[in-house]
């Protein structure tokens, strides 16, 4: 049951989420220096998942991210063209395609991660370590709830260190 106090707080929360989404898209949380705005969200999330979970097929990648296979195919094409992702044949079924992070993709992902890590450090430089941990915990929980609500059965986007 939602009370009048909850309504105001929930209004504030949804407004702050909307502001965050706009600001995140405006900056693409791209990091600092030359790497700012250097990798779009879709590429970053795809490369991160391949890095964390290893080579996989398009269907598995799509299912894990809560998007359809055609979207993954479209999003991964420029990553293959630029040499960040390699397409190989499945070892047991030569007709199936396996996607994996290339060494170039691994290096590029680490550059972007490092730049974004610096940005997070700057944005939270006056926070206590426990505040950073709490924010990360709550944001992870929020994202998992959002994912479960809109994309049941998808694997959570675990943070990378």
How would you describe this structure to a colleague?
The protein has 161 residues and is mainly alpha-helical. It contains six helices and three strands, in the order ααβααββαα. The chain has helices spanning 4-27, 41-53, 58-65, 69-81, 103-123, 129-150; strands at residues 56-57, 85-89, 97-101. It has a three-stranded antiparallel β-sheet. A hairpin with a 7-residue loop joins β2 (85-89) and β3 (97-101). α2 packs across α5 and α3 crosses α4. It is globular, with a radius of gyration of 18 Å. The termini are far apart.
Give the biggest sheet. Answer: 3 strands, antiparallel
Distance between the termini: 38 Å
Radius of gyration: 18 Å
Helix content percent band: 55-70%
Q: What is the 3D form?
A: globular
Please tell me the overall pLDDT: 85
Tell me the structural class: mainly alpha
* pLDDT < 50 stretches: none
- Strand fraction equals 5-15%
Order of helices and strands: HHEHHEEHH
Number of DSSP strands?
Answer: 3
Strand order of the largest sheet: 1-3-2
Q: Helix segment count?
A: 6
